[in-house]
Specification:
Blueprint lengths: L9 H9 L2 H21 L4 E9 L11 H9 L8 H8 L2 H11 L3 E6 L5 E4 L5 E4 L2 H6 L3 E8 L4 E8 L3 E10 L2 E5 L2 E7 L9 E8 L1 H11 E5 L6 E8 L2 H59 L4 H37 L15 H23 L5 H85 L5 E9 L8 H26 L6 H7 L4 E6 L16 H15 L8 E6 L6 H13 L5 E5 L7 H5 L7 H6 L5 H4 L1 E2 L6 E4 L8 H5 L2 H13 L2 E5 L18 E7 L5 H12 L6 E8 L17
Parallel strand pairs: 14-21, 15-19, 15-20, 16-18, 16-19, 20-21
Antiparallel strand pairs: 1-12, 1-13, 2-3, 2-10, 4-9, 5-6, 5-10, 6-7, 8-9, 11-12, 17-18
Helix pairs in contact: 2-12, 5-7, 5-8, 8-11, 9-11, 10-11, 14-15
């Protein structure tokens, strides 16, 4: 048989939970009460916030030389830092632990004045716990001092770890007093806030500095305010706003002190480094100057650059002189060749020598030639004047030759001297590159040392200014302040959670109850367990009679039996269908009660109905109806001597209903039901009655019912709310699947009015 797929029916769920309205009401009242108590007891938590602007310390100043910037970074004069790094520093465990020590946050004092009034003392506790710092630094656990003082000044102290473990106890002591614990000796003393003649009930929670600092990491947060900003949002969540402000102020101060100390230490280290370098560079600078002086002396240099220019000038002048002298020498040589040529005996000398002696002789010679040329036009060659003039010309020619020779000798001397000068200048020029290179190298080294020395002097002054500066690294933009509205508890959320809990807790309890129980409680639950049709349910019988179905009664339980009767009729569509077999899984489910009243319900239709007690092992009908226990059906099945007419007993309150009781319990009921007389019994009953209702035995206990199923047209399996096991429902399903039961409908007996879906209400008078 195909099982039903589970479907969530919200309407059915609401109907099922409806009968537990009292549980939901109780849950709602409890949850609201708990929410109110929670809001009264729990201290509001506020967000305390501060904005800190962090200087990124970028030391690469505009206009600074590249060497200066590079060296500055090298010697770490306050190198640039990123805001993310400062967030790590500000949120570090070390700063938190220093803050815990300064503010004594590892000791919290709660004074209980009433159940709803608990005072969290901060810097105003009348009693405090003291111990050496080394003890709190090494303490790795937490515990409580419960201190109660009387009006006369006596105190009772109990040190507890957890709820049940007591570490130490002191009774009727006078403060101050030392309390010895497994973790060390603590001093419990009064403070200036202690008022005499007053009773106190104070719980001091003590924890180590390190665990407290770790715990604060969850509530104290340092984060970037926004992108591309050098601002840090430092905030904490605290029940005491003043304590939160002190915590943030302390963290900021410790952060700035740490930054200042690091800056001062850095500046001191830098100053030492600069002084050491200045001493070394100064010695190197003096050595460079001494080396330059020695080099100049060795190479007779005053100013290498000017001297190089002088040598180049001498070289140029010597070369120019050689060129001029060489040109003059060649001109004079040409004059000499011209004069010595006989063909030019009476010709002008066309050249002029750059020499006083040669020039005057040539000029005189040319004058004589000009006179002869004039005389030659007017006189013959034998003219005495002509002859005398020729003699003068010859004599002057000799003078010219002599002057030219003297000039040539003088020019050769000058050429030699100019060549010597040129050679000397050339030699000096050949050594000039090496000298210039070496000189430049010496001056370069001196310049580098001098530049470094000047730079270090400047940085020494800058470092002195850094050391003298006291500007905080973190500038407070917003002083620590507490938000006006608390973060927690969120009253609307608490109320909403209380309402949800009020709804969910009963549902969870009912679900747990359903999981823990192996019985079903309602028709809806039964329908979830089986695919067989549930043809009705019967309320718990509150009357003093088992026969509730009678003519003229409109009780709701009667209407429910009529409802079951109608469903049974639908299960018998043929006119020949007459036998209704009523069974159950185990004893005590109300099978006989249902059989009796179902038969009465059929009788109310005017039908002739017989109720047969076939539960022959444990017959109940005679007792229920106050009938004779014998003879019964066993008498007919066993001997066959008693006619059927003598077995039936009429029911006085229901017209048309007759009953055959079970009779004497036989020794062999199973064999008796399998005999031929059983077939004969049902054949006769079918001939006489319109409806035959059979009250059979439970199927989980004996097999008697299976001997009767061959005669049944409809099988009504009776179950009982909060009594029938779920496994028994599975047993009925299995019997149907195996074909041992046929045309089965389930009835739920003994239900509560709140467990049904409204069936039976609104019809006639009520019996509940």
């Amino acid at each position: 048989m195909e099982k039903k797929q589970p479907v969530i029916d919200f309407a059915a769920m609401l109907q099922r939970y409806k009968r537990y309205w009292w549980l939901f009401a109780l849950s709602l009242a409890a949850c609201i009460a708990l929410a109110v108590m929670y809001l009264k007891i729990v201290k509001p938590v506020y967000l305390v916030q501060s904005i800190v602007l962090v200087d990124p310390e970028d030391n690469s100043k505009p206009g600074a030389s590249s060497m200066g910037s590079s060296l500055l970074k090298t010697i770490a004069l306050g190198g640039g830092s990123r805001v993310e790094d400062e967030i790590v520093v500000m949120g570090s465990q070390q700063l938190r632990m220093q803050m815990v020590k300064e503010l004594k946050l590892n000791r919290a004092y709660i004074e209980r004045k009433s159940f709803f009034n608990r005072v969290d003392h901060y810097n105003d506790s009348p009693i405090e716990i003291d111990a050496p710092d080394a003890l709190f630094d090494t303490l790795a656990t937490s515990f409580q001092f419960k201190i109660k003082t009387t009006a006369n000044g006596k105190a009772n102290i109990k040190v507890k770890k957890g709820r049940f473990k007591t570490l130490a106890e002191a009774t009727d002591v006078t403060l101050p007093v030392n309390v010895k614990t497994p973790y060390g000796i603590f001093n419990v003393k009064k403070t200036a806030n202690y008022k005499p003649n007053q009773e106190y009930n104070i719980t001091a929670n003590v924890i180590g500095n390190i665990p407290k600092a770790e715990a604060l990491s969850k509530s104290m947060v340092a984060e970037l305010l926004r992108r591309k900003a050098n601002a840090i949002d430092l905030n904490t969540r605290e029940t005491n706003i003043q304590r939160g402000r002190d915590m943030l102020n302390t963290i900021i101060r410790l952060y700035n002190e740490r930054g200042q100390n690091e800056k001062d230490q850095q500046a001191i280290n830098t100053a030492k480094f600069i002084d050491d370098r200045l001493d070394l560079v100064y010695r190197n600078l003096m050595g460079s100057e001494a080396e330059i002086e020695a080099y100049k002396r060795a190479h007779k240099l005053v100013d290498p650059e000017l001297q190089a220019k002088s040598v180049i000038g001498r070289q140029d002048m010597a070369e120019q002189a050689i060129i001029n002298l060489e040109a003059r020498y060649r001109i004079v040589s040409m004059i000499k060749d011209f004069v010595n040529d006989p063909a030019n005996a009476h010709s002008f000398i066309p050249f002029s020598a750059d020499s006083t002696a040669a020039s005057s002789a040539i000029s005189a010679y040319n004058n004589l030639i000009m006179q002869r040329m004039k005389l030659e036009n007017s006189a013959l060659n034998d003219n005495p004047s002509m002859q005398r003039l020729d003699g003068q010309i010859d004599a002057m020619r000799a003078n010219v030759v002599n002057g030219v020779d003297n000039t040539l000798r003088a020019l050769r001397v000058q050429l030699a001297k100019a060549g010597s000068v040129s050679g000397s200048a050339s030699g000096a020029m050949r050594t000039m590159p090496t000298t210039e290179r070496q000189t430049r190298e010496l001056y370069r080294q001196q310049g580098i040392q001098n530049e470094i020395y000047t730079f270090l002097l400047q940085k020494r002054e800058e470092n002195a200014l850094v050391l003298a500066a006291t500007t905080p690294k973190g500038k407070v933009v917003d002083e620590p302040y507490g938000k006006s509205e608390p973060l927690a508890p969120n009253k609307p959320l608490v109320c909403l959670l209380a309402l949800l809990a009020a709804l969910l807790l009963p549902m969870i309890l009912l679900a747990i109850k359903s999981m823990l129980t192996n019985k079903f409680a309602s028709t809806d639950e039964l329908e979830q367990l089986t695919s067989l049709p549930v043809i009705g349910h019967i309320h718990h019988n509150r009357h003093d009679t088992d026969l509730v179905v009678q003519d003229g009664r409109n009780w709701s339980i009667v209407e429910l039996f009529r409802y079951v009767r109608n469903n049974v009729q639908f299960m018998m569509p043929d006119a020949s269908d007459k036998v209704v077999l009523v069974t159950s899984s185990i004893s005590g489910e109300g099978k006989s009660f249902v059989s009796l009243n179902l038969a009465a319900a059929f009788a109310l239709l005017g039908k002739r109905v017989v109720l047969v007690g076939m539960d022959i092992r444990k017959p109940q009908l005679a007792q229920m109806l106050n009938l004779h226990k014998t003879p019964g059906v066993t008498a007919f099945l066993a001997k066959g001597e008693t006619p059927l007419e003598q077995l039936t007993q009429p029911v006085a309150d229901v017209e048309g209903l007759e009953v055959i009781v079970g009779g004497t319990v036989p020794p062999n009921p199973a064999e008796l039901l399998l005999g031929k007389r059983t077939q004969m019994l049902f054949d006769q009953l079918r001939d006489i009655y319109d409806i035959i209702v059979v009250d059979s035995a439970p199927i989980a206990m004996v097999s008697d019912t299976f001997s009767l199923t061959r005669f049944a047209d409809v099988t009504v399996a009776v179950t009982r709310a909060n009594h029938t096991h779920r496994d028994m429902v599975k047993l009925i399903d299995r019997m149907v699947d195996e074909g041992r039961l046929k045309n089965v409908g389930l009835v739920v007996n003994d239900t509560k009015p709140s467990q049904d879906n409204g069936y039976g209400y609104g019809y006639g008078a009520t019996d509940e």
